[in-house]
Amino acid sequence: MNAPGPDLAALREAVTEFARFAGPERSWQRLLRETAPALDLSVPGHPRALLAWLNSWGCRLRNPRPGEPDVFGESVTAWWSRWAAHLPGPDDSLARLTDAGIDRLGLCYADLAAAPATAGARPRSLGSTAASKALHALRPRAVMPWDAAIAERLHGARTPAAYAAHLRLGREWALGVLAESGLGEEALAAELGRPGRPLTKMLDDYCYLTFSVL
After folding, report:
1. DSSP annotation of 85
2. Is the pTM of this model over 0.85?
3. Residue 83, SS3?
4. pLDDT digits (tens), the chain, 214 positions
5. Are 4 and 185 in contact (CB under 8 A)?
6. Where are the domains of the chain?
7. Cβ(174)–Cβ(95) under 8 Å?
């Protein structure tokens, strides 16, 4: 879907409004501290930190009960061993993603969304929202997250193809605001009063306030 993206004024308004939600920022900073220098799902403790962060962002993935296997931890660690080499680099940006790179992210997303996440009588997979947020946590400069409302309103689906379309749309928006501002990503974040915030997340702030909060 071709949806009009934010200009600088709309993006500034969105990130200023989203800054009033203190909880998401606190939980993000906690994840960064607990997984420094970078989130790596092969490192003991990092999958558990990721699970706590996903739940703080509304994913509602049940923690294992005493005696249950750590389905989430085992599953995302196995996923990481298959896909880590196919992700963008830690310093790659959304604006610079190639079509081939976005297609690979669609495959990464599909496998992660289908990965088992909980045990018990009603087991569940990660699903589309948690998978997109996990990918954002792993590569925050390059990958936008989404939620069900954003996916459905912008793309009419939460399939891998829709996810790739969302990244292409985000790339278009990123290029637009960077061209309008004449700034690099770090300078743009500082100019908008959100120093250090990835452009992917500022665009997601806009999506959340425009398409999720009705």
Report:
1. G
2. yes
3. helix
4. 557 789 999 999 999 999 999 898 999 999 999 999 999 999 999 999 999 999 999 899 988 888 889 999 999 999 999 999 999 999 999 999 999 999 999 999 999 999 999 887 778 999 999 999 999 999 999 999 999 999 999 999 999 999 999 999 999 999 999 999 999 999 999 999 999 999 999 999 999 999 998 5
5. no
6. 8-212
7. yes
